[in-house]
What does this fold into?
Amino acid sequence: MQEFKAKAKTTQKMTRDGVVETNQATGEQTKKSQRETDDFSGGTAENMTGKALNRAAAERQHHKAKKRRKKANKADKKAQEATGKQTTRLQFSEAERSDPELAKYVKKSEKAADKLETAREKIPKQKRIKAAREFDEATGRAKTRLYFEKTDKPPNGKLHHNPADRPVREIKNYVHGKVSEVEKDNSGVEGAHKSEKLAERASSYASRKLKEGYRSHKLKPYRKAAKAEAASQKADTNYLYHKTLKENPELASNPLSRFHQKQQIKKQYAKDLRAAQKAGATAGKTAKNTRKTAQKAGEATKKTTDFIARHWKGILTACVFLLLIVMIFTGLSSCAAVIQGGVSSVLGTSYTAEDEAIREVEADYKELESELREEIADIETDYPDYDEYQYHLDEIGHDPFALASYLTAKLYDYTREEARAEIRALFEKQYTLTLREEIQTRYRTETTTDPETGETTTEEIPYDYYILHVTLTNKNIETLAGELLTPEQKEMFDIYMETKGNKPDVFGEDYAAGTPGSGEYTDYEIPPEALSDERFAAMIAEAEKYLGYPYVWGGSSPSTSFDCSGFVCWVINHSGAGSVGRTTAQGIFNYTTPIAPSEAKPGDIIFFTGTYDSGSAVSHVGIYAGNGMMIHCGNPISYASVNTPYWQSHFYSYGRLP
It folds into this structure.
């Protein structure tokens, strides 16, 4: 028989030699851990001292590594703060400050920079959580650190519509209706009710104005900062321009040279400033790059002067020969005018930008106008809580040559990217869209019948009628040029407008020549009975030749296309309907005899007022075609209904030709 033996009982105990297992039955001990046994056979104090020193050294290394990490993090934080607060002001040396010719411009630049920094500090700030990845040299590991970064809070001046306004208005109307049912029985109640409604209107008006003022107040720091930034850039550019003139006196030889040089400095400074703001560089580096550009231009001018000095005999001979030819063909009295006119026509009357850039900028500006049309078309969708919408809209459109002339005078030479900010600013100046709420108290008639007596009573119940006025004003580019450009730039603008930058076909032959069908237009079929009038038939036959011609400011013939008055004058003069010459819309009105709208017939002239700031009562004119239709020079020439809210709001009078 097999003998079963009980398993021996074992216990484990932790000693300084590690884990030791003991058999309780036999007393045998077995070492289980892999730890080496400490040798305490001799020199025990020496071993303990060495271990203590090793631990102290390890602690010191750990402490030093921790201090290095803390110092590195602090340096990174300072660098980030320095980058975020990088100044864009120019740095001036003591020599520049003491120079009497430059001291005035240095002072203006520093004053403008101080105002800019003050304005930027007043912009509201917001905190955003940022993550920074760091590498710990002591542990050899990477870790991510979160920190708060202060940034400028973006502006927000959007008009928010309160969804609770409509229910509150309905409750008020209900209460006023109930009071109106009994107020006629008591004059005191009626007077108090009218006073209450007047007070509510005043309160509503005051509340609306307070909201508008609050929004305007919130946006004030941003407007001041933008204005201060523009003034600072202008002051810096002016200083760099005069510094360049001082270092290169040959640049001040003639007005065209000075104008060209100033535009080059302004363009280069703006370009370097944008690059510096992206890279976190200082304004000193920006100014240095700008001065290099100016010095290169000065060196080029100096090389030209040296060339003339070395070859003066040949140049003199050529000039004498040219002078003899001019004297033979034009006479001594006109030599100076011919030479000056030739130089000016070549150097000062042409668009300097590439044709492709001019067309791209024109397309971008038209895109902005298209977005404005879509915004107006969506007014009733975006603001649905109104009973009526009244539109007071100027026409949306511009002269592309005026835009090209403005940008050339302002920027001298530009690309699509460089002109983007400028056309956005010009667009906001040209078009102003405003919304105004009007609340009218109207009455509806309600009839009730008493079920007992059968008596019928009629009551006038008041209610609020809400009207949204949508107004768009168009201040044409020609007018804005006189306000936004310097006198020197305005003079160049007028020259470019007169010559069309020596590129009349830059926008295509259709636009320059006014080819029929060059633009989309609204057509209209004249009723046969209206064409029985021979004079009207002749006028409409002449007018329809130019359907689709583009609107050109000041245009008065098919070769240049037309504006509104030029088109009507051309039709009257060339259809045999009369002889009015070339005059304005106000001049055509003075030529006709005013008649009542009820007497208007096809062939009469229709006049409008306030479509733009024309300086006279009449600002637009068209030819009435009957049935509420007219043919006029919009953009392009087309038929249009005179019964739209826009034309009805600007209607002035009808006139009959003599």
Residues 551 and 634 are 6 Å apart (CA to CA). The longest helix spans residues 187-247.
